[in-house]
Structure formats: structure tokens, C-alpha cells
Amino acid sequence: MFENLLWIFEKISNMEINDVIDILIVAVIIYHLLKFLSGTRGWQILTGLSLLLLLWLFAKISQLQTVLWIFDNIWAIALFLIIVVFQPELRRGLAKLGESGIFSYGLQSQKRVIDEVIRAVTFLAERKIGALIVFERTVDLENYVEGCVKLNAEINLELLITIFIPQTPLHDGAVIIKDQKIASAHCFLPLTINPNIPKTIGTRHRAAIGISEETDAIAIVVSEERGEISIAIDGKLIRNIDVLSLKQNLTEILGKPVSLREQIKRKIKKKRKKV
Predict the structure, then answer these.
(1) Pair 117, 133: CB distance under 8 Å
(2) Residues 200, 212: contact at Cβ < 8 Å?
């Protein structure tokens, strides 16, 4: 075992730039593979295979000859078994790769989330059903929300509409979207204390402004009185926004990361407000 550790340290000390690039490429492929399999039947199978791999490594280090003999015979048919077992996931993954490429998959997923949210708020606005949807960005919202019901659900039109239907258990409060999923529902947000906000602005809109003042989150509000769609960004409320402008705003803001300089500016601004 000690000799194996020396061999590893020797390899690390002799690494060149090509080796680093090689490792990074493999790491990216493994990351996207795990992300793709997460939550699927293939993830459970992959977990089982990982346990077998750990057992093989343990047998290799401990020189367990019988176990190693079994594994040596298994590897001969392992590739064929993996192809058969993962056949549905492989077909689906190759189809996605052909459509958009592995590195643009995240952008495609973000676009789908935005489209589903816009379809939902349009449906709710047409029927004058109140709603509040918040997109978490770089600032964790756990410290700003209360009474949340954890969901961690995939975003789709039907689920968003169902949450905000009146008289249902989760309709009151906000929905938090995090990592392109519905993280929580029935969340109560801090209200803005800005004295310049008109008295006609209701609680739902004040909560949207409040969370956008305290964090870099983006909040979408549907008014149940007028059926209007509004968006709160950086403490400012854009009222009665049309669907095209809403999509442009969400795509532009959510599609680009917040720079370190901008994060520092927001933290300083937040501290000044507290003082």
C-alpha cells in the first residue's frame, strides 16, 4: 500500500501541462455525465457500480486474490452489460448532445425554465390569479424567507399554476426557483420599507421589491386585482410589463453571471442601508 502511495506522489510531481488538460477534460465529461444521470434510474445503477469499483480498489490494495479473480472475469463482459443497462440513458444523452452540445445544455435548460415560468404567469394573469415567483441568483435566500415548504421539483407549467390556485395550501406566499428547480413554495419574504413606494402597492408587490432590495434575486408578480405582470429588480418595480419584455429581461439577467465587482457593490450598498 505504501508503494502505491509513493507511485501516486511520483506521478503527481512529474505532471506536465498536457496531463493537466487531460485531467480537466475528463473531469468535465464526468461532471456532465453525473449531472445528466442525477435523478434517473441510471443514477441508482451508477451508484451500485461505484460501490463495486470501490470494492475492486480495496481488493487490489489488500491483494485479495479470490476477489480479484472474480473481478477479472467480470470486466470481460462489463462493457456489454453497461451498454445494455444504460441503453435508454445513452440514447437520450446522445439525442441531447446532437441537438445542442454538452456545453450548451445548461443554457438550453435555463431557456426552458424561463419559457415555463412565462407561460405560467401569462396563464395566471389572464385569469387574475395572484402569484409571486422569485429567481435566486448569487445570494442564498435561506436567511430571507420564512415558512417555506421544501419541494425541489422540476419546473413545469402545470405545477406552477397548481401552486397558486386560490384555496390550495401553498397558494399564499412566494415560490423560490433555485438551480433551475422549484426549491420552495409558501415562502414569506421581507417587505420593503421604502417610504417612496405608493400606498396603492399591495403586500405581494412590496414583498417582491423587498427581496430584490436585500438580495440580487429577481421577483415576478402577478396582480390578482388587475391581472398585470410586474418584475422587481434591484429594488425597482417595473409594472404592467408585456410578455416579450419580461422574457428579454429574464434572459439577459439570468443568462449572465454577476461579476465579483457587482457583488461587492451590492454588499456595500446593503451595509449602508442597515446603518
Answers:
(1) yes
(2) no
pLDDT top residue among 44 and 115? 115
Structural contact between residues 220 and 246, judged by C-beta atoms closer than 8 angstroms: yes
Q: Beta-strand (E) ranges in 24-173?
A: 131-135, 149-154
- Residue predicted with more confidence, 192 or 258: 192
The three three-digit cell numbers of residue 54, written as one number? 470501490
User: Which of the listed residues 54, 75, 100 is the one where a domain comes to its end?
Assistant: 100
Residue 26, domain extent: 2-100
> Same domain for 147 and 239?
yes
Same-domain pairing of 155 and 131: yes
Cα distance between residue 179 and residue 200, in whole Å: 34
Nearest alpha-carbon partner for 194 in 209, 205, 174: 209
Per-residue model confidence as pLDDT tens digits over 157-186: 999 999 999 989 898 899 999 988 999 999
- Identify whether the C-beta of residue 124 lies closer than 8 Å to the C-beta of residue 167: no
Read out DSSP for 217-240? -EEEEE-TTT--EEEEETTEEE-S
Same domain, yes or no: 13 and 83? yes
Helix (H) or strand (E) holding 175: strand 174-178
Phi, psi of 133 (to 5 degrees): -120, 125
Task: Looking at the structure, tell me whether residues 70 and 192 fall in a common domain.
Answer: no
Domain stop point among 43, 78, 100: 100
* pLDDT recorded at residue 103: 46
Residue 181 · residue 187 · CB < 8 Å: no
